[in-house]
Automatic annotation (TrEMBL):
<dbReference type="Pfam" id="PF00725">
    <property type="entry name" value="3HCDH"/>
</dbReference>
<comment type="pathway">
    <text>Amine and polyamine metabolism; carnitine metabolism.</text>
</comment>
<dbReference type="InterPro" id="IPR013328">
    <property type="entry name" value="6PGD_dom2"/>
</dbReference>
<dbReference type="InterPro" id="IPR036291">
    <property type="entry name" value="NAD(P)-bd_dom_sf"/>
</dbReference>
<dbReference type="InterPro" id="IPR006176">
    <property type="entry name" value="3-OHacyl-CoA_DH_NAD-bd"/>
</dbReference>
<dbReference type="GO" id="GO:0047728">
    <property type="term" value="F:carnitine 3-dehydrogenase activity"/>
</dbReference>
<dbReference type="InterPro" id="IPR006108">
    <property type="entry name" value="3HC_DH_C"/>
</dbReference>
<dbReference type="InterPro" id="IPR029069">
    <property type="entry name" value="HotDog_dom_sf"/>
</dbReference>
<dbReference type="InterPro" id="IPR026578">
    <property type="entry name" value="L-carnitine_dehydrogenase"/>
</dbReference>
<keyword id="KW-0963">Cytoplasm</keyword>
<comment type="function">
    <text>Catalyzes the NAD(+)-dependent oxidation of L-carnitine to 3-dehydrocarnitine.</text>
</comment>
<feature type="binding site">
    <location>
        <begin position="9"/>
        <end position="14"/>
    </location>
    <ligand>
        <name>NAD(+)</name>
    </ligand>
</feature>
<feature type="domain" description="3-hydroxyacyl-CoA dehydrogenase NAD binding">
    <location>
        <begin position="5"/>
        <end position="178"/>
    </location>
</feature>
<dbReference type="Pfam" id="PF13279">
    <property type="entry name" value="4HBT_2"/>
</dbReference>
<comment type="similarity">
    <text>Belongs to the 3-hydroxyacyl-CoA dehydrogenase family. L-carnitine dehydrogenase subfamily.</text>
</comment>
<keyword id="KW-0520">NAD</keyword>
<dbReference type="Pfam" id="PF02737">
    <property type="entry name" value="3HCDH_N"/>
</dbReference>
Amino acid sequence: MTKRATIVGGGVIGGGWAARFLLMGWDVRVFDPDPEAERKIGEVLDNARRSLPGLSDVAMPAEGKLSFHETISEAVAGSDWIQESVPERLDLKRKVYQTLQEHCSPDAVIGSSTSGFKPSELQGCATRPAQIVVTHPFNPVYLLPLIELVTTEKNDAALIERAKDIITSLGMFPLHLKKEIDAHIADRFLEAVWREALWLIKDGIATTEEIDNAIRYGFGLRWGQMGLFETYRVAGGEAGMKHFIAQFGPCLEWPWTKLMDVPELTDELVDMIADQSDAQSGAYTIRELERIRDNNLVAMMRALKTQDWGAGALLRVQDKRMMPAEPDLLKPIVTVSRAVPLDWTDYNGHMNEARYVQAFGDGTDKFMEFVGCDEDYIANGGSYFTAETHIRYIDELNAGARIRVETICVLGEGKKMHLFHQMFEGDRLVATGEMMLIHVSLKTRRASNPAPHIEEKLAKVAAAHAALPRPEGIGRAIGVIGVKA
Ligand SMILES: NC(=O)C1=CN([C@@H]2O[C@H](COP(=O)(O)OP(=O)(O)OC[C@H]3O[C@@H](n4cnc5c(N)ncnc54)[C@H](O)[C@@H]3O)[C@@H](O)[C@H]2O)C=CC1
Ligand SMILES: C[N+](C)(C)CC(=O)CC(=O)[O-]
């Protein structure tokens, strides 16, 4: 059954939550008094549609339904999750909880996006404090997986587990804090860094651009994959963390930081920061910067996925959760069902030719796994090599397009495996890929017969597929086009 989420406050963060829920198949109801809310959320959703689905290498759920409502009572009716993302003012948040708790189900989870308030502060004047938790996200919510889940003794274990399960099912990572504190873990940390940056600008030591360069060309890249402590462990050399602390611990006593002092945000300092930021990034609109940020995040997260590390490891686990059941042999087998990732597009603004080979290659890998040539079999020394490929590029594909590869086994006999893949976007045929593969021994690197269980399964699939209508194009070669003098 489709789940329903309510977004109360649909600005930068509420819009991101709406996109995350919708693209993970939830119906979403929004309440926001801003007359521009629908347009703004529409633009966030456009960004999300081109970036989030491409992180996954399997089919995402069908997108949920989005609706906008005039009253909180209408918006929260029948919702399993209510995400509050109104401005960071305690009085406003408390007022919102009073109204929404008059109308929402007592079983719904109410999550607050608050960057800094403790859950006990939010629960303070509530009718049912037990229902309210902090679920602090990171911008853009549709791409970044971290959710700081902060609870109090008023929240029971069952609600906390439900909250964790839902966050996980959205492809996110619930980091459940042991204790509530102002600003949770991440914002306490980010604010320390921000204070230092403000001092560096005020003291005329660095501009906004120089500070960003110091982050993005160096430690920012390290943090994105290993964080702080794992990075410093490595920096300690073979002796690891103890040596690192022995060497750099004393520096903590030296006047390196200005951590507890905050420069006064005078008009002069604010103008200086804003002017430097305009000089650094003013050539782009905010929407353009959002798209650049999303392109980069997708490329980095997909790279981490190949390494099965950090945020990339989470993506792999999420793919496993969404993996389809066994296919029906009386139809072509769907071997790829995914969205075109941003990093598969090229200077022509469409999916690059090499990515068609990749998608068909992924289809072949899936088919091999299906007939028993899986990770264990390959580790034991048997596999298939592709001997010949013929691709027809029939139509264009854009980033975010949902594609499906349907695979027919034309021949599965002895060492030979002949596959014909058809790639569709909806009903539109966009490409075909024909592949001849030969079974090999990975020890001798020569052709060899597959194990009996593979031969048997392959023969069974080939026989079933022989009864299917033959798609146009099987066995086609490139014709010689006459060139007139
Ligand atoms: N912007 C950021 O980077 C992050 C913000 N947050 C937190 O998310 C929350 C929202 O922040 P933003 O989205 O940045 O603010 P925003 O200003 O972009 O959006 C707030 C939205 O709430 C709406 N609103 C105001 N009063 C309302 C009411 N009574 N009922 C329903 N909607 C109402 C406004 O019309 C606006 O669309 C804050 O608690 C903030 O601390 C959390 C993570 C990151
Ligand atoms: C600046 N901020 C405190 C609103 C930041 C956050 O809360 C998280 C983020 O996305 O950086």
